[in-house]
Amino acid sequence: MKITTEQAVKDILPTDTLSTMSKEDILTSIFGPALNINDKNVSLYDKIRRILLSNYMHVAIIFLVILDSVCVTCELIIEAENKKGNHILEIAYDFFKYLGFSILCIFIVEIVFKLIFIFDEFRHSKLEIIDAVIIIISFFAEIIYMKGKRVLYAVFGLIAIFRFWRIIRIVNGFTVTVRKRYEAKIEKLKDEKNSLIKEIESLKNELNNKQELLDQTKVANDF
Questions:
Q1: If DSSP codes are grouped into helix, strand and coil, which group holds residue 124?
Q2: Domain range annotation of the chain
């Protein structure tokens, strides 16, 4: 049985609550705990920034990059092997071609969102800029090629090879994910350290006060 997104949301949230919530509130309720965006004081702009900079987004992009690389590989293999115009191979080729184009569309949307919401982080990353250029060129070359401009066949092959450059993005994505994870752990340890230092200072003060009280008691007993 096919379950729609609306049905899935209704299963997660009570009906009476769902009727009084906006789309933004529904998305925040579902994804907020995972992405730490369920704070009502945080603006929509900042919530989207958090999502774009989150480890979840990095993992999703890595998955799409791998899938895109698989599509390009399959396209090149089928193109090389299908010399006799096999109908099944042509169907498979079209499938991987349109799947790869759909992924390119997602990457274009990703670039637009990054330019709007995390422009400062984007413009300081050479990898991100090169990646965006390759995606945009690949996107328009794919559109021209799909319209039957076979004169760009060689260019398409070159762009397909360029798209393999995104494998570097996978390594970069894993590096960023691991770095952020360790940075979060370091920050947590720093907070724990500061908390322990404050607790030690508090115990020292308490000990000094008790020592002074004990000394005063001894002096009083001596008299």
A1: coil
A2: 43-176
Query: In angstroms, rounded to a whole number, what is the distance separating the alpha carbons of residues 104 and 72?
Result: 11
The DSSP-derived string for 152-189 is GHHHHHHHHHHHTTHHHHHHHHHHHHHHHHHHHHHHHH
pLDDT tens-digit map of 124-152: 888 788 888 888 888 887 887 777 655 55
Q: pLDDT for 10-36, tens place per residue?
A: 444 444 444 545 555 555 554 555 455
191: amino acid identity, one letter: D
User: Domain 43-176 is of which CATH architecture?
Assistant: Up-down Bundle (1.20)
Amino acid identity for residue 28 in this structure: T
pTM: 0.62
Q: Which residues contact 65 (CB under 8 A, 6 or more apart)?
A: 166, 167, 169, 170, 173
